[in-house]
Write a structure and sequence with these properties.
heterodimer; A: about 650 residues; alpha/beta; Rossmann fold; 3 domains; seven-stranded mixed sheet; B: about 300 residues; 2 domains; five-stranded parallel sheet; two-stranded antiparallel ribbon; 9 strands; about 45% helix; globular
């Protein structure tokens, strides 16, 4: 499960809650902020303490059950004062500073109240304001003038510290009914997804014609991409569903529109496909491309200039169950893409200005550009943390390298004396009779980072991009060439997209990472092996391949029938895992150290073990990504180098 | 030393074990120590708290085992090592391991004494000769091949064969205590051959009551209520580091003790904690998170009189 990611002041707020609760294993249902957007430390602590002493989940359900009316909101604000008093009394003996923090919070209230203009004051809920004034006035020992009703409510809100959750909820119910005329109903059950299976599903799908014509489309995610939606996205195979347009040329054109032109000639690609697209991949094709300034919108924009560009506001789209497709349909852009798909399916793909293909190109370019800007914005929002991580990983890598790679000695005027050459000093007056470390190590290393860019990663695109950037910049700064490649499959094409080449120290291509499509891990790994083998003549360094994966290979292009299977099989589950394992086996046979960083649910742990053997590290948060890479690098060097 | 025995008795360490330590000392005292070596018997200011760990460590050393103390930051590995040397009354040699540690560094090297080339013994050689305790600090920072030289010293052979010189028998009183932290950058897994020559003691994080006793030991005048808040603060930071919300840099027991020491000298609580804990993280955002934890426990304007009786 993807853990919810917090940024900026929300992360700080949630940290205060976790700290007060003494528990970091829950997602707080409430966060407290001041009207100016700063986090309200005291009330966040109260929320944390409520979690420590009471059942926060039930309190949450209670507040849900009040509804969403203004009166209900007023009641909720006021009732939190009751909870505050209760947990204050419970915690005070163990945390004496609470008294002082409470006074500071009371002072903050008066400072805030004094800053309100007359108009702002009129916009306040007087009922809530009165109660706040009553509470904070009492804390500071100030006299407050209240109506008899408000006075009675203020007294009722002084919940004693010996309440348990049941009695607290009973008390809150009483106050909500008596003072606000709000009757807490049953908790709203929320959105319920009914799974339609079997025949009913097939029937429903027949009726819903557009759902069935589900040709693979590159649909970019419209959310914030920082993991704000729970659960990884999972693409599902549906019986009878077509994933190609039926025409090789159209599919190829579509892939070219999406990812730009292929970096190899047709002839080279034919050689590659003949060698690799065999057996289970015989109906597949390959597309190798690199991000370039010419593709994907205004690609020339540098890091600093593009940050202020208008990034579309994030739209939250909930993804229900296992189907990812309907999510995209919720947004205007996605609707446009669907429309474009239909246009394409009906034939028109000329590429002329104004044609469906041209519109598609523009739309995709725009989407890609938006994602690039989101990646950059995420980078800039977290620039301090990212820089710190780069520093950390660079230092770690440096230490690892100095541990595992000996610098070859060179003759020098200082260092360890070289006994065999010592005679040169008195006889020839040659001072170079010492040995010191040269810049040349025993061997050099290159690292290839392979990023799964399938749709399952759509909720965490920005994090992946920033983590890849951390790794690339750290390694490059230590003199290790890094190449970053994203892989995904679409309409039978397994696309490997180079985001960064060896030696590119700016690494800006990594911001072009986006998720969309399927993943045919086996073919991708075999292709990487082929290409790296091909480069052996040019690159003599030891090669390390690190793969960020969810160990769930899953492609729309079926495995064609073979001698043992009469019918085609879906590329998923055990078959796909075995195929990916074959890919890793080939890589290892070629002497390429291959290891995986596994970021996915526990259910696929067996898969990752089957594919990569012992050579993987599981991470539970993307923040651990760069650490995991450091660890894998260490392990890889241990096996390659003289440990 | 008798203080330490008293302390251990109070902590509930088995008296049988302590009696056997007494017997060891009587035997080992027979090994004559020159004055400059006798000065090496440590007298640490800080005691290690943790009865079970004490018992395991003492029992292992009494059986002639070498100890490997493995554990994360702030678990008191070096404090325990020093305390053990004091308890057994043996001189201590500290060897800090790093990438370039080699056999010569450990055993000894040739040097010129102005007249002729002589052998200058290294710390492991000295330990073996004088029956000392050798603390091999951060043992997993060194290359495994550099450590191979220790194999014959640590196993049943108990010898050091110094190439070109002599074959030295390791004194029966000598013990080696390795310390390691799995998490530090640049560390590696110990190879099996070396690992099998140690009894491995997994060092737990200091327990709440032990930390309180430790603070009481170092700062007897610290007000009990404030002391408890410092203890809680340490565990809150530990929890935050464990949840990977902050790095382990701020989790620093030495830093906490230093902070209280600064407060004793008149620095305000906020400034002291900032210097010794908060500023150990270099990320501005992380500092805020650590500061939030501190603010939720310790007022930042406490002065000496508020903290000490």
């Amino acid at each position: 499960m993807i853990k919810q990611h917090y940024t900026g002041s929300s992360r700080r707020a949630v940290n205060i809650i976790w700290n007060a609760a003494g528990n970091y294993d829950f997602e707080p249902p409430f966060l407290a902020f001041f009207p100016n957007g700063d986090e309200d430390s005291y009330f966040n602590m109260v929320i944390g303490l409520a979690s420590k002493w009471l059942d926060l989940e039930r309190i949450n359900l209670f507040f849900d059950s009040l509804g969403l009316s203004n009166t209900a909101q007023e009641a909720a604000s006021v009732l939190w004062l009751g909870i505050e008093n209760c947990v204050y009394e419970k915690e005070l003996s163990g945390r004496p500073i609470l008294e002082r923090l409470r006074k500071e919070r009371a002072q903050d209230f008066y400072t805030y109240a004094a800053s309100l203009s007359r108009q702002q004051m009129m916009l306040q809920s007087m009922k809530v304001f009165d109660q706040e004034e009553a509470r904070w006035g009492k804390v500071l020992g100030k006299k407050t003038v209240l109506s008899p009703g408000a006075k009675k409510l203020a007294e009722a809100l002084e919940f004693p510290g010996d309440l348990d959750t049941d009695r607290l909820i009973a008390k809150m119910t009483e106050i909500a009914e008596d003072s606000f005329r709000v009757r807490p109903g049953k908790a709203e059950s929320g959105y319920r997804a009914y799974a339609v299976k079997g025949l009913a599903r097939a029937f429903a799908r027949t009726l819903m014609h557009r759902e069935i014509r589900n040709t693979d489309l590159l649909i970019l995610r419209k959310g914030t991409g920082t993991g704000d939606r729970k659960g990884a996205v999972h693409l599902e195979h549906v019986f009878g569903q077509e994933h190609t347009s039926g025409s090789k040329e159209k599919d190829r054109q579509y892939i070219e529109d999406c990812f730009g032109s292929c970096m190899y000639t047709d002839q080279e690609m034919r050689i590659l496909e003949n060698a690799l697209c065999t057996g289970p991949d015989s109906s597949c094709s390959l597309w190798l491309t690199r991000v370039s300034a010419g593709h994907g919108g205004s690609a020339g924009g540098s890091l600093s200039s593009s940050a202020s560009a208008g990034v579309p506001a994030p739209v939250r789209t909930d993804i229900a169950g296992g189907e990812s497709r309907p999510a995209a349909g919720n947004t205007p852009d996605a609707a446009a893409v669907s429309a474009q798909a239909e246009a394409e399916m009906s034939g028109g793909s000329t590429g002329a200005p104004g044609s469906a293909a041209d519109r598609r190109r523009k739309l995709l370019a725009q989407d890609e550009e938006n994602q690039r800007l989101r990646n950059i914005r995420y980078y800039q929002d977290n620039i301090f943390r990212i820089r710190e991580s780069i520093r950390d990983l660079s230092a770690q890598t440096d230490t690892i390298f100095s541990s595992y790679l000996r610098y070859l000695p060179k003759r020098s005027r200082r260092g360890k004396i070289h006994a065999e050459e010592a005679w040169r000093l008195p006889v020839l007056s040659d001072p170079d009779v010492f040995l010191s470390d040269s810049d040349i190590t025993e061997f050099s290393v290159t690292v290839d980072l392979l990023l799964d860019a399938s749709q399952s990663r759509m909720n965490i695109q920005e994090s992946i991009a920033s983590q890849a950037l951390i790794i690339a910049r750290s390694f490059e700064s230590c003199g290790i060439p890094v190449r970053v490649t994203a892989f995904r499959s679409l309409r039978g094409y397994t696309v490997l997209q180079r985001l960064k080449e060896y030696g590119d120290r700016k690494c800006e291509g990594i911001f072009r990472y986006y998720a969309g499509g399927w993943n045919r891990d086996g073919l991708c790994l075999k292709t990487m092996n082929y290409l790296m083998e091909d480069e052996k003549e040019r690159i003599s360094a030891k090669r390390i391949l690190l793969v960020l994966t969810d160990a769930n290979p899953n492609d729309s292009m079926q495995i064609p029938p073979d001698a043992d299977h009469v019918f085609p099989r879906e590329y998923e589950g055990d078959v796909a895992v075995r195929d990916a394992a074959e890919g890793v086996k080939l890589l290892k046979k070629s002497g390429i150290r291959t290891a995986a960083i596994y970021f996915g649910p526990t259910t696929h742990l067996d898969n990752v073990h089957q594919i990569y053997g012992q050579d993987y590290v599981r991470i539970r948060s993307l923040n651990q990504f760069s650490d995991a890479v450091g660890m894998l690098l260490k392990r890889s060097l241990e096996k390659i180098g003289p440990a | 030393m008798s203080d330490l025995i008293e302390f251990l008795k109070k902590e509930g360490v088995s008296t049988d074990l302590l009696d056997r330590v007494g017997k060891y000392r009587k035997t080992a005292d027979g090994i004559g120590l020159p004055d400059n070596i006798r000065r090496r018997v440590p007298e640490p200011e800080v005691r290690y708290y943790g009865t079970k760990v004490w018992e395991k460590a003492v029992a292992a050393l009494l059986c002639g085992e070498n100890l490997l103390l493995a554990g994360p930051k702030a678990t008191g590995k070096n404090v325990l090592a020093e305390n053990l040397a004091e308890l057994f009354g043996r001189p201590l040699w500290d060897v800090s391991f790093h990438v370039n540690v080699d056999a010569a560094y450990l055993i000894g090297t040739d040097t010129y004494d102005g007249n002729k080339v002589v052998f200058r013994p290294g710390p492991v050689h000295n330990c073996a000769t004088y029956g000392g305790f050798g603390v091999l600090d951060e043992i997993n920072m060194a290359r495994n091949e550099a450590l191979a030289v220790l194999h014959s010293t640590l196993d049943f052979r108990h010898v050091i064969d110094v190439a070109g010189y002599d074959r030295i028998h390791v004194s029966p009183a000598a013990r080696f205590i390795g310390t390691m932290n799995y998490g530090y950058a640049g560390t590696r897994d110990l190879n099996e051959a070396l690992c099998s020559r140690f009894a491995v003691l997994d060092m737990p994080l200091i327990e709440e009551k032990d930390l309180e006793s430790l603070l009481n030991d170092v700062f007897p005048d610290l007000k009990p209520k404030i002391r408890q808040q410092f203890v809680m603060l340490f565990y809150e930071i530990e929890k935050k580091a464990e949840a990977a919300e902050i790095s382990e840099r701020a989790l620093d027991l030495r830093g906490l003790i230093d902070a209280i020491r600064l407060m004793e000298k008149g620095i305000s609580s906020g400034d002291a904690l900032e210097m010794t804990i908060v500023n150990k993280t270099f990320d501005a955002y992380e500092r805020k998170l650590v500061m939030d934890v501190i603010k939720g426990r310790i007022p930042t304007d406490l002065r000496r009189a508020d903290i000490f009786d």
